[in-house]
Amino acid sequence: MPKHGKRYRALLEKFDLSRPYSVDEAVRMVKELASARFDETVEMAVRLGVDPRKADQAIRGSVVLPHGTGRQVRVLVFTRGDEEAEARDAGADYVGFKDLIEKIQGGWLEFDAVVATPDAMPEVAKLGRILGPRGLMPSPKTGTVTKNVGQVVRELKRGRIDFRVDRSGNLHAPVGKVSFPEEHLLENVLAFFQEILNLRPAEFKGTYVHTVHLAPTMGPGVEVDVNNLYERVKSFS
Questions:
Q1: What does each C-alpha distance from 43 to 1, 80, 81, 115, 184 come to in angstroms?
Q2: CA 150, CA 90: separation in Å to the nearest integer?
Q3: Taking a C-beta distance cutoff of 8 angstroms, is the pair 39, 70 a contact?
Q4: Residue 176, Cβ density class (10 Å: 0-12 exposed, 13-18 middle, ≥19 buried)
């Protein structure tokens, strides 16, 4: 087990690591565990029982959180023609094509999300080695390769998160800030979990969701009772 500092160990004493908590309790506890001098992000980690090596089990999707993530998202759009004005009107921070490609190839990466129209992708594909490892490469699977750039830009600005399962079957995503009211954090958590359930493969057998944890940026994770989450999602939706 990794060694933790005095502050972290003190936080661990505030709750029982040996048992899961209801989602309402976990949200309340995460707010109490925040101790940094900045507004910590609340992260949600979900361990699934899927095998990501199988194409139908490589869970990937997106969801617009009801109350956003609490951070400003800088959106870049690769396009040309009519969609340029649409992207700018929707609030995109950067709009362009070859000029932006060259800028990124030169080392510029001051943006948080990327959208591209289909006709731009042959050129944008050249940025795969730069954008791919950072999770910024536009993809039809997440709807970031689209002709409806205005809609996607607005969703990203409003608090849309994209997520994908890693090689170990884990999903991670920000679901808000510790400064959020409890009910706003709760609704974001339930919206994210609902989307994960919606993506369950039709032919999947076995336990789909193994564990769920919530944690502030600088604090320990609190395990959430999965059965309770299922029940709360029913009433939420």
A1: 21, 36, 38, 24, 14
A2: 5
A3: yes
A4: buried
The helix-helix angle for 149-158 and 82-89 (nearest 10°) equals: 20
Q: Check pLDDT > 70 for residue 2.
A: no
Q: Is 190 left (phi over 0), alpha (psi -120 to 50) or beta?
A: alpha
Cα gap 217→186, rounded to integer Å: 17
How far apart CA 194 and CA 44 sit, in angstroms, is: 13
The chain-wide mean pLDDT, for the chain, equals 92
What are the tens digits of pLDDT across the range 184-216?
A: 999 999 999 999 999 999 989 999 999 999 999
205 class by beta-carbon count within 10 Å (0-12 exposed, 13-18 middle, 19+ buried): exposed
- Name residue, tokens 């299922």: 230
Q: How far apart are the first and last CA of the chain?
A: 39
Instruction: Give the C-alpha separation, 147 to 117, whole Å.
Output: 5
CA distance 188 to 69: 9
The label of the residue with tokens 């609490």 reads: 70
pLDDT the model gives residue 5: 67
Contact present, 188 and 67 (Cβ < 8 Å): yes
Whole-angstrom distance, CA of residue 171 vs CA of residue 69: 16
Element containing residue 233 per DSSP (H, E): helix 226-236
Query: What gap in Å lies between CA 166 and CA 163, rounded to an integer?
Result: 9
Reported as half-sphere exposure (CB side, CA atoms, 13 A), residue 102 has a value of 4
Residue 201, both tokens: 């493969």
